[in-house]
Amino acid sequence: MVTQEFELSVTPIGSPPVIHLNKDDADFQLVFYIDSRSGTFTMENNTSAQIRGTKPDGTKFQASGTVSVVNKTVTINGDKNMTNVPGIGIFEICLTHARKELYTQNFKVCIEDI
After folding, report:
1. What is the pLDDT, as a whole number, of residue 76?
2. Could you report the per-residue pLDDT of 16-58, keeping only the tens digit for each?
3. Helix, strand, or coil here: 78?
4. How far apart are the first and last CA of the chain?
5. Is residue 2 over pLDDT 80?
6. In Å, what is the CA distance from 89 to each residue of 5, 28, 58, 60?
7. CA 65/CA 68 separation, integer angstroms
8. pLDDT at 39
9. Helix (H, G, I), strand (E, B) or coil at 42
10. Residues 6+ apart with CB under 8 A from 39
11. How far does Cα 14 stand from its chain's mean position?
12. How far is Cα 53 from Cα 96, in angstroms, rounded to an integer?
Protein backbone atom coordinates (compact mmCIF):
# COMPACT_ATOMS: atom_id res chain seq x y z
CA MET A 1 0.00 0.00 0.00
CA VAL A 2 1.12 3.54 -0.77
CA THR A 3 0.19 6.44 1.51
CA GLN A 4 0.35 9.98 0.16
CA GLU A 5 -0.02 12.99 2.46
CA PHE A 6 -1.29 16.46 1.54
CA GLU A 7 -2.17 19.73 3.23
CA LEU A 8 -5.56 21.26 2.43
CA SER A 9 -7.06 24.52 3.58
CA VAL A 10 -10.69 25.30 4.32
CA THR A 11 -9.97 28.73 2.84
CA PRO A 12 -9.34 28.43 -0.91
CA ILE A 13 -6.03 30.21 -1.43
CA GLY A 14 -3.44 29.57 -4.12
CA SER A 15 -3.14 26.86 -6.73
CA PRO A 16 -4.87 23.54 -6.07
CA PRO A 17 -2.62 20.64 -5.08
CA VAL A 18 -2.22 17.81 -7.61
CA ILE A 19 -2.38 14.14 -6.64
CA HIS A 20 -0.87 11.70 -9.11
CA LEU A 21 -2.27 8.16 -9.34
CA ASN A 22 -2.16 5.42 -11.95
CA LYS A 23 -5.18 4.12 -13.80
CA ASP A 24 -6.95 1.40 -11.79
CA ASP A 25 -4.89 1.98 -8.61
CA ALA A 26 -6.76 0.68 -5.57
CA ASP A 27 -4.10 -0.07 -2.94
CA PHE A 28 -3.46 3.46 -1.67
CA GLN A 29 -4.41 5.91 1.04
CA LEU A 30 -4.70 9.66 0.80
CA VAL A 31 -4.16 11.50 4.08
CA PHE A 32 -5.24 15.13 4.14
CA TYR A 33 -4.09 17.51 6.89
CA ILE A 34 -6.87 20.08 7.15
CA ASP A 35 -6.22 23.61 8.35
CA SER A 36 -6.98 27.23 7.50
CA ARG A 37 -4.54 29.58 5.81
CA SER A 38 -6.65 32.47 7.01
CA GLY A 39 -8.18 32.42 10.47
CA THR A 40 -8.51 29.56 12.92
CA PHE A 41 -9.86 26.09 12.14
CA THR A 42 -11.07 23.62 14.75
CA MET A 43 -12.14 20.11 13.84
CA GLU A 44 -14.88 19.20 16.29
CA ASN A 45 -15.78 15.82 17.74
CA ASN A 46 -18.30 13.84 15.67
CA THR A 47 -17.11 15.38 12.41
CA SER A 48 -17.51 13.14 9.37
CA ALA A 49 -15.84 13.52 5.98
CA GLN A 50 -16.30 12.61 2.35
CA ILE A 51 -14.21 13.07 -0.74
CA ARG A 52 -16.39 14.46 -3.53
CA GLY A 53 -15.51 15.28 -7.07
CA THR A 54 -15.86 14.95 -10.79
CA LYS A 55 -13.75 12.43 -12.69
CA PRO A 56 -12.23 13.35 -16.09
CA ASP A 57 -15.21 11.88 -17.98
CA GLY A 58 -17.68 14.07 -16.04
CA THR A 59 -19.04 11.36 -13.74
CA LYS A 60 -19.34 12.11 -10.04
CA PHE A 61 -17.39 10.31 -7.34
CA GLN A 62 -17.75 10.32 -3.58
CA ALA A 63 -16.53 8.14 -0.74
CA SER A 64 -16.43 8.38 3.02
CA GLY A 65 -13.21 9.09 4.87
CA THR A 66 -11.88 8.46 8.35
CA VAL A 67 -11.52 11.54 10.54
CA SER A 68 -8.92 12.13 13.25
CA VAL A 69 -10.07 15.18 15.20
CA VAL A 70 -6.86 15.24 17.25
CA ASN A 71 -4.59 15.31 14.17
CA LYS A 72 -7.04 17.28 11.98
CA THR A 73 -6.75 14.64 9.25
CA VAL A 74 -9.04 12.90 6.83
CA THR A 75 -7.92 9.55 5.42
CA ILE A 76 -9.39 8.23 2.19
CA ASN A 77 -8.80 4.58 1.28
CA GLY A 78 -8.00 3.76 -2.34
CA ASP A 79 -10.89 3.03 -4.65
CA LYS A 80 -10.55 1.68 -8.19
CA ASN A 81 -13.73 3.54 -9.11
CA MET A 82 -11.85 6.79 -8.40
CA THR A 83 -8.95 5.84 -10.71
CA ASN A 84 -10.68 4.06 -13.59
CA VAL A 85 -10.72 7.07 -15.97
CA PRO A 86 -7.44 8.66 -17.10
CA GLY A 87 -7.09 12.43 -17.07
CA ILE A 88 -7.55 15.19 -14.49
CA GLY A 89 -10.52 15.37 -12.13
CA ILE A 90 -11.43 18.06 -9.59
CA PHE A 91 -12.15 17.01 -6.00
CA GLU A 92 -12.64 18.42 -2.50
CA ILE A 93 -13.18 17.16 1.03
CA CYS A 94 -16.55 17.85 2.66
CA LEU A 95 -16.52 17.99 6.46
CA THR A 96 -19.88 17.59 8.17
CA HIS A 97 -20.66 18.44 11.78
CA ALA A 98 -24.14 18.90 13.26
CA ARG A 99 -25.63 18.84 9.73
CA LYS A 100 -23.45 21.77 8.67
CA GLU A 101 -20.96 21.34 5.83
CA LEU A 102 -17.54 22.91 5.36
CA TYR A 103 -15.51 22.30 2.19
CA THR A 104 -11.79 22.35 1.62
CA GLN A 105 -10.05 23.99 -1.28
CA ASN A 106 -10.27 22.00 -4.50
CA PHE A 107 -7.48 19.65 -5.52
CA LYS A 108 -6.74 17.89 -8.78
CA VAL A 109 -6.41 14.15 -9.18
CA CYS A 110 -4.31 13.26 -12.23
CA ILE A 111 -4.93 9.68 -13.32
CA GLU A 112 -2.09 8.52 -15.56
CA ASP A 113 -2.75 6.01 -18.31
CA ILE A 114 -0.37 3.52 -19.85
Report:
1. 98
2. 999 999 999 999 999 999 999 888 999 999 999 999 999 999 9
3. coil
4. 20
5. yes
6. 18, 17, 8, 10
7. 10
8. 87
9. coil
10. 11
11. 17
12. 16
